[in-house]
Amino acid sequence: MFDIREVSWLVAISRVVLSLVVFVAGVVALDIVIYLQAEGTTFDERVAAAFKDAYDYGYEQTFEVAYQEARNEAFDKGYTKGYEIVLDIGGEKLAPVSRLVETHNPTFSELMEFLAADTTDSNPFISGVYNCFNYTAELNNNADAAGIRAAYVRIRGDEWAHAIVAFETVDRGLIFIEPQSDAEVKMTLGEPYPWRQVGATSSLGYSEAITELQLIW
């Protein structure tokens, strides 16, 4: 005799098993979808990040090059203009003294005698008013007026500038003089300027290397 209760239990068990299979399949499918979406999102984010990094790096490099070029051009123009202003007295443009008198290369002894008599080094350093460029221009012009050939020396570092005077002596060769103290200067490209040793005032620290040296006779 067929028992309807056995059929009901069989159907119930089958339904439970089917439900579990469907549930497990759904969970697996959901995991796959979530995984794929996560992978896709991560990939997109990485692409976006890589693009941004490349853009920022390229922009930074281009900006740095343009900045340095503009800075150097502005520095050179300002340097030249400042030197012209130093030579401008009473609103009248004066020709450099060396063009008005005949100059000669001195002996080292003659140079020392000239520096001892010259009073440029006694002038007070006043930032923005009377600085290294003024000292150099004044000593240079005084030497020219005394018949001694002198060079205006431009010194530059990465973030600083300075000026001193040079003389080509007949017995000891080229001599660099710090006009703030009349001290002889020994310089080497790539090495710091000896501010303290020669008694010069610097608005910066004391470790900046010399990257450029130019003599203007």
Question: Would you kindly provide a written description of the structure presented here, covering whatever features stand out?
Answer:
By secondary structure, the chain is an alpha+beta fold. Helix content is about 50%, strand content about 15%. The strands form two sheets. It has a five-stranded antiparallel β-sheet with strand order 6-5-4-3-7, with helices on one face. Strand 4 and strand 5 form a beta hairpin.
Q: What is the H-and-E element order?
A: HEEHHEEEEHE
Strand content: 15-25%
* Sequence stretches where pLDDT stays below 50 over 5 or more residues: 2-7, 89-95
- What is the CA-based Rg, rounded? 40 Å
If strands are numbered along the chain, what order do they take across the biggest sheet? Answer: 6-5-4-3-7
Which of globular, elongated, flat, extended, rod-shaped describes the shape? elongated
Secondary structure class reads alpha+beta
Overall mean pLDDT score? Answer: 74
- Total helical elements: 4
| Helical amount | 40-55%
Q: Note the main sheet.
A: 5 strands, antiparallel
Q: What quaternary form is this?
A: single chain
How widely separated are the two ends?
A: 129 Å
Q: Could you give the count of β-strands? A: 7
